[in-house]
From TrEMBL:
<feature type="domain" description="Type IV / VI secretion system DotU">
    <location>
        <begin position="3"/>
        <end position="200"/>
    </location>
</feature>
<dbReference type="InterPro" id="IPR038522">
    <property type="entry name" value="T4/T6SS_DotU_sf"/>
</dbReference>
<keyword id="KW-1133">Transmembrane helix</keyword>
<keyword id="KW-0472">Membrane</keyword>
<dbReference type="InterPro" id="IPR017732">
    <property type="entry name" value="T4/T6SS_DotU"/>
</dbReference>
<protein>
    <submittedName>
        <fullName>DotU family type IV/VI secretion system protein</fullName>
    </submittedName>
</protein>
<dbReference type="Pfam" id="PF09850">
    <property type="entry name" value="DotU"/>
</dbReference>
<feature type="transmembrane region" description="Helical">
    <location>
        <begin position="179"/>
        <end position="201"/>
    </location>
</feature>
<keyword id="KW-0812">Transmembrane</keyword>
Length: 234
């Protein structure tokens, strides 16, 4: 098992938050908080028997906590201001805004799994102290991307204009950034496919349970009917 396997569900939670918000399908804040806590508890349990993996997870958990806190608190969700900050509960601190970037600066080329995780943390919405410094945040994201071991080769691809918020600025070389955003888009596409898969599996499971439940109910009714007929005959 690798670090990406441990963090997959947490990243899925983060990636689907905005969609759930737009669809009006978010539960009460305490219920959502419980969902997040369950994910962290599950990750903690998964790595407990693997010291090496546990150590790697321990180095990225702070960033995962910061990601969840920020995307919820900074969202337009009416219950966002009532979110019980995970960082306060887990670490008794409130310094994620700048501390996360200190952790990113401490990464070495050997920290491939951590670099990948931090790339996703930023790509999924964490900005911290760079919330109003687009250029610096973009530069940090690009630096992480350049350190990824398997970057996607550039091919001719046309992106929808609606995909980005375009800011007028001086012309510059776009190839690296183009590749970066394409990587982010493909990452989200993968998440959408994963969500659809989960929905299909879930619907199938629900239908199966419903079918079996209906069969049981019919059997119960048949037994009751048989008993009633026996009583009538007697």
């Amino acid at each position: 098992m690798e670090l990406r396997d441990v963090t997959r569900d947490l990243f899925l939670f983060a990636a689907t938050f905005r969609e759930r918000l737009n669809q009006g399908s978010l539960p009460p804040v305490q219920t959502l908080y419980h969902e997040a806590k369950v994910l962290f508890d599950r990750m903690d349990q998964v790595v407990v028997s693997n010291p090496a993996l546990s150590a790697r997870y321990g180095k990225i958990k702070y960033g995962l906590v910061a990601l969840i806190d920020e995307i919820i608190v900074s969202s337009t969700w009416s219950e966002g201001p009532n979110w019980p900050v995970l960082e306060l509960e887990f670490y008794a601190t409130n310094i994620a805004g700048n501390h996360c970037y200190e952790l990113i600066k401490s990464l070495t080329p050997a920290d491939v799994d951590l670099i990948e995780a931090w790339f996703y943390i930023l790509a999924l919405g964490f900005r911290g102290e760079l919330a109003f410094e687009e250029a610096r945040w973009e530069e940090t994201l690009l630096r992480l991307y350049r350190q990824l071991p398997q970057r996607i080769d550039q091919n001719d691809i046309k992106l929808s204009p609606e995909a980005y918020h375009v800011v007028a600025r001086k012309a510059r070389r776009l190839d690296p950034l183009f590749s970066l955003w394409r990587s982010v888009i493909l990452f989200f596409a993968f998440l959408v496919m994963l969500i659809v898969f989960y929905q299909v599996v879930w619907v199938s499971m629900v239908d199966d349970v419903k079918e079996k439940s209906d069969e049981v109910m019919l059997q119960i009714r048949d037994k009751k009917l048989l008993e009633e007929l026996k009583e009538i005959k007697q």
